[in-house]
Design brief:
The protein is an alpha/beta fold and about 375 residues long. The protein folds into 2 domains: about 5-135, NAD(P)-binding Rossmann-like Domain (Rossmann fold); about 135-355 and about 365-380, Dihydrodipicolinate Reductase, domain 2 (2-Layer Sandwich), CATH 3.30.360.10. Helices cover about 30% and strands about 30% of the residues. The strands form 3 sheets. A 9-stranded mixed sheet has the order 16-15-14-13-7-12-11-8-17. A 6-stranded parallel sheet has the order 3-2-1-4-5-6, with helices on both faces. A two-stranded antiparallel ribbon has the order 9-10. Strand 13 (about 275-280) and strand 14 form a beta hairpin. The longest helix has 20 residues, at about 360-380. The radius of gyration is 21 Å and the shape is globular. The protein starts with a strand and ends with a strand. Bound molecules: alpha-L-sorbopyranose. Alpha-L-sorbopyranose binds next to helix 8.
Length: about 375
């Protein structure tokens, strides 16, 4: 196989980010097979055709039709969570590789079915990956490398926050992200899932138990007339219920003994996309904030105390993960590059016949953490994952 035909389902924010990745990946990275943007799929014919400008050769309205096409080898799922399981399982059974946006599913039961389908497909050389894109931000990949090299020693603390503010205004309208039937959960699954995956990735460890609390600060909102960006344009008068959490906070114990605190909120006024992680170990610490995404702060506790201190590593050197494919040192990367790196790693795994990471099994494990947080918030108890 010299080409890998892609069908992408969904073309909103995530669809645009994935389109950019498929378009750019083969132009900056040496890939063993060439991704070809064969067909875009969306429910609305006009909007789907218009979204074809993102680089797609063809546009269709029925996702099932792409499973019969010989020019499609991989299905990229960028739809809301309520459709992930059906599309992913059908695609894997049809022998298509799958990339599925996070969180993997809307429930543990769906995620189990998806992970089982992925395990069966892997026996036939068919691969599945879940899109936790932040793993591919070079500074976070470097953070994992430092932990794996033992530079932090034994990890004691993980402090993770994902702070946004796009619905702090009670007049911000309803969107699918505020609808439990479509999204599964709110801040917890949408952005909390990212910090669960990112911290487990950095530590090479998994969360074993949690206790949490969740809140919906604004339970009724205007119904959106049209959707744009994350929320939409409100119509006057009509309101509807918010059926998900606006914020989710939880404590965690990792299997390896580290203690974690997690905060995911869409009400952190002034914080736009502040995915922040700090890890403290016996030999050092590291800290990251996506709002300064080309930087990793590293404290080397083995240095002489008279000169030791957090150092600001600008993660733009060719030695840093993924960076050498891009610009000369110091020129920096953005949000979209993590999606390109995700596409690159998936194409390489497919070509090499290896299982990509994060796998659907990894996505299922994150789903179990999210479910445990919800159960804990309802029952006000600690929950095993
Ligand atoms: C909205 O909260 C959102 O777009 C998430 O859905 C994405 O996963 C995250 O990368 C940015 O914020």
């Amino acid at each position: 196989m010299t080409t890998l035909g892609i069908a992408m389902v969904g073309h909103a924010f995530m669809g645009a980010a994935h389109s950019q990745a498929w378009r750019v990946a083969p132009r900056f990275f040496d890939l063993p097979v060439q991704p070809v943007m064969a067909v875009l799929c969306g429910r609305d014919p006009g909007r789907t055709r218009a979204a074809g400008r993102l680089g797609w050769a063809d546009a269709v309205t029925d996702w099932k039709s792409v499973l019969d096409r010989d020019d499609v080898h991989l299905v990229d799922i960028c739809t809301p969570g309520d459709t992930h399981a059906e599309i992913a399982v059908a695609a894997l059974e049809a022998g298509k590789h799958v990339l599925c946006e996070k969180p993997l599913a809307n429930s543990v039961a769906e995620a189990v079915a998806m992970a089982e389908a992925a395990a069966r497909a892997a026996e036939r050389g068919v691969r599945a990956m879940v899109g936790f894109s932040y793993r591919r931000v070079p500074a976070l990949a470097l953070a994992r490398d430092l932990v794996a090299q033992g530079r932090l020693g034994r990890v004691h603390h993980v402090r993770a926050q994902y702070l946004q503010d796009w619905i702090v205004d009670p007049a911000a309208p309803l969107s699918w992200r505020l609808d439990k039937d479509k999204a599964g959960s709110g801040a917890l699954g949408d952005i909390g899932a990212h910090i669960v995956d990112a911290t487990q990735f950095i530590l090479g460890d998994t969360i074993a138990e949690v206790t949490g609390t969740m809140e919906t600060f604004v339970p009724q909102r205007p119904v959106a007339a049209a959707h744009s960006g994350l929320s939409g344009t409100a119509v006057s008068g009509e309101t509807g219920p918010v059926t998900v959490d606006d914020a989710a906070l939880f404590l965690a114990r990792f299997a390896g003994g580290a203690l974690g605190s997690f905060e995911a909120t869409r009400f952190a006024n002034g914080r736009k996309n502040a995915l922040r992680i700090e890890v403290n170990g016996s030999a050092g610490s590291l800290a990251f904030d996506f709002e300064d995404m080309n930087v990793l702060q590293f404290f080397d506790g083995t240095e002489d105390a008279s000169v030791a201190g957090f150092r600001r590593i600008v993660v733009t050197e060719p030695q840093h993960p993924y960076v050498s494919a891009w610009w000369p040192a110091g020129h920096g990367l953005g949000y979209e590059h993590a999606f390109t790196h995700q596409a690159v790693d998936l194409v390489r795994a497919v070509a090499e016949g290896t299982d990509p990471s994060p796998s659907f099994a990894d996505g299922l494990q994150v789903q179990r953490v999210l479910a445990a947080v919800e159960t804990s918030a309802e029952s006000r108890t600690w929950q095993q994952v």
